[in-house]
Amino acid sequence: MQTYLVGGAVRDELLGRPVTEKDWVVVGATPQIMLEKGYTQVGKDFPVFLHPRTKDEYALARTERKAGTGYTGFVCDASASVTLEQDLQRRDLTVNAIAKDANGELIDPYHGVEDIAQRVLRHVSDAFSEDPLRVFRVARFACRYHYLGFSVAPATMALMRTMAASGELEQLTAERVWQETSRSLMEQSPQVFFEVLSESNALASWFAELPPVPNPEYEALAKAANDNAPLETRMAVLCSGLTPEQTDTLLTRLKAPNVVADLAKMSARCSHTLMNSALQATDIVELFNNHDAWRKPARFAALLDTAGYLASVTRVNGYSSRRHALEQALQAANEVDVKAIVASGVKGPDIKKAVFAARCEAVAEFTVSLQ
């Protein structure tokens, strides 16, 4: 029984990046041996065990054979006879197919160290094409390591195009695609994820509503990432040029969380209004009403952020002053004493009308800056 550190921990150590988690592969063992040593089995499709003390994941070396469609149609062999080289060969990229033994020696049968030095993302073997999720994984790695100068090898890009043309990408589950997308959106250069998908002809498989690359929305997304904007803001920026219907279709397909979908649909509905339209007092109060700025001011602030990123790349003049005026208007509108209006004797539907009128009066002085 031999144990090796594999995958991302070895890759990131070689790149000088922090190692956040460690994965290990075990050669020459069986599930029974692992259990006898105190490991806890957690894998369902193939044997994965948790170390009794560190809780790191230890997987038995395995091979995989395609036996169906999608990313789940595999038959695994995790017998004690599987070698380390066979296990590494099933991995997606050469930079992820490097192992390190207990003495710190690297085992690199597929030249991942060389590809790290050359800043290339290259598939290990033609078996890469058996798992359609790998198209999205490569796009994610491309955006993660873009700042280091990594690019996708031409042969790997060609293989990804073949996979996109096969129709297998559509067989993936929304949960897995959203996982890769959301993780990519939170990288330093999230726009590269969509650039790689576009170059590999894979963008239409799950993101047909998005604009073609290049487009101002992708540039705005890069600015949002540079500001460390949260996930929902980044997705809203990406959807700001879509119609609300397109946004709803896209995010329903991806099964995006409600907090992400809500802001994205709001952005699609009113980003251009925030940037370009003259807003009178009634427009401003209706804007606050429609987006529940009273109860969810943080979400409304995120909506203003989204419009700001798009304004910055489309060179809309005066957005910062428009935003400031809207923020002042919201503060003034919030100071309207609703209880006092009710106490004045106004009843029924007239309460809503009176509150609306009072809020319009309160924000009237801020409309000039929004012209």
UniProtKB/TrEMBL annotation:
The answer to keyword Lipid biosynthesis applying to this record is no
The reply on keyword Nucleotide-binding is yes
Q: Where is the tRNA nucleotidyltransferase/poly(A) polymerase RNA and SrmB- binding domain?
A: 149-210
Coiled-coil-forming residues are none
Q: What else is known?
A: A single active site specifically recognizes both ATP and CTP and is responsible for their addition.
User: Would you identify the family this protein belongs to, as annotated?
Assistant: Belongs to the tRNA nucleotidyltransferase/poly(A) polymerase family. Bacterial CCA-adding enzyme type 2 subfamily.
What is the name of the protein in this document? CCA-adding enzyme
What gene name does this entry carry?
Answer: cca
